[in-house]
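ok, trying the design again with the full structure, not the truncated one.
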């Protein structure tokens, strides 16, 4: 018969025993990963100092404790102050045999919900991109002819009429650039994945940004120096980070701060619809202090043709999402005025096999 301790350690979601004064009495191993702290260091700490929930729960928890009834809270953002919040469901119930003690289970829903949404979105996006690629191919040739004809006409026109031909040429070139972005989105080659030092990628992107579009920004490095190698395509990951830095720089306006933050979260795991899963412990955050995403588009910001910019194409973040998805990774965003966080979750490269004499030995960290 499995013991109580084994059952406690086997619970797959972060679970907390809450004492009469809303202090933490115990946490399981999944909660240790969620808080990035051991049970020993968490015991005795006030729950609401360690857990950030975007809903007022203290009074509801007190009523559930007093009445001895369970409490269910769906679709709330839950974090710990050190990570981007996850959308979760909370199940809270009295702990049998321990008066005034409550058991809280935290069930992340963000991944499951987005995976279901992405399946539908990808089907629609695939059709839209296929049609857009066909149109791009058919439109670029006549656009070149229109541009050439306008340039020839401009040779014999007055200054007033030249403004009209310049408008034709300028708008034609703008359309060509849009069509090239559509073609790039559809034709991106699959990643060639190798062990990658993600900090090298971040540093290359930071230096490139400071020399160009991000020259007006203060870009801060906040890295975990012990972060292991990622499994990815360095060039494509560089393209992702550059795109996110460019968006953050444009959102900030004349000045602002961007923080590049890396850390390890061993409990982050992506579970797919077919039941398979993959650990994504390497976390990269691009954090800016700009005005935040426009209301109403945060949930769709990675879909093709959705943009928060006045003249945006809506393909930049769709391309970023496609690259990360092709890597087997995950991208998410949280945004409020003054703080927007794009979070990349990537797989870890396999550790090299240093055991040549005995195949049954395992490499240790």
């Amino acid at each position: 018969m499995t013991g109580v301790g084994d059952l406690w350690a086997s619970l797959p979601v972060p679970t907390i025993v809450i004492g009469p004064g809303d202090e933490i009495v115990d946490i399981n191993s999944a909660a240790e990963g969620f808080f990035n702290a051991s049970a020993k260091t968490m015991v005795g700490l006030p729950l609401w100092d360690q857990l950030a929930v975007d809903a007022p729960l203290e009074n509801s928890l007190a009523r559930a404790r007093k009445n001895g009834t369970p409490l269910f809270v769906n679709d709330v953002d839950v974090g710990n102050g050190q990570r981007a919040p996850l959308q979760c469901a909370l199940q809270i119930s009295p702990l049998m045999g321990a008066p005034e003690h409550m058991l809280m289970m935290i069930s992340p829903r963000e991944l499951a919900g987005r995976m279901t949404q992405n399946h539908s979105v990808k089907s629609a996006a695939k059709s839209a991109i296929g049609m857009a690629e066909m149109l791009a191919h058919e439109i670029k040739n006549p656009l070149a002819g229109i541009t050439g004809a306008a340039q020839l006409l401009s040779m014999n026109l007055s200054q007033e009429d030249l403004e009209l031909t310049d408008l034709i040429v300028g708008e034609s070139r703008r359309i060509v650039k849009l069509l090239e972005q559509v073609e790039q989105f559809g034709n991106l080659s699959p990643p060639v994945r190798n062990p990658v030092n993600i900090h090298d990628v971040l540093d290359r992107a930071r230096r490139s940004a400071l020399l160009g579009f991000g020259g007006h920004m203060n870009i801060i490095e906040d890295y975990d120096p012990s972060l292991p190698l990622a499994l990815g395509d360095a060039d494509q990951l560089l393209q992702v980070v550059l795109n996110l830095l460019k968006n953050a720089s444009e959102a900030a306006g004349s000045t602002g701060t961007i923080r590049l933050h890396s850390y390890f979260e061993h409990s982050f795991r992506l579970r797919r619809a077919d039941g398979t899963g993959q650990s994504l412990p390497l976390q990269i955050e691009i954090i800016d202090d700009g005005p935040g995403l426009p209301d109403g588009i945060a949930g769709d910001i990675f879909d093709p043709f959705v943009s928060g910019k006045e003249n945006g194409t809506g393909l930049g973040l769709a391309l970023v999402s496609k690259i990360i998805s092709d890597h087997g990774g995950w991208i998410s965003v949280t945004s409020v005025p003054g703080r927007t966080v794009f979070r990349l979750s990537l797989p870890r490269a396999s550790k090299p096999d240093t055991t040549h004499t005995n195949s049954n030995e395992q490499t240790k960290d």
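Keeping the full-length input from now on. The first strand starts at residue 15 and ends at 18.
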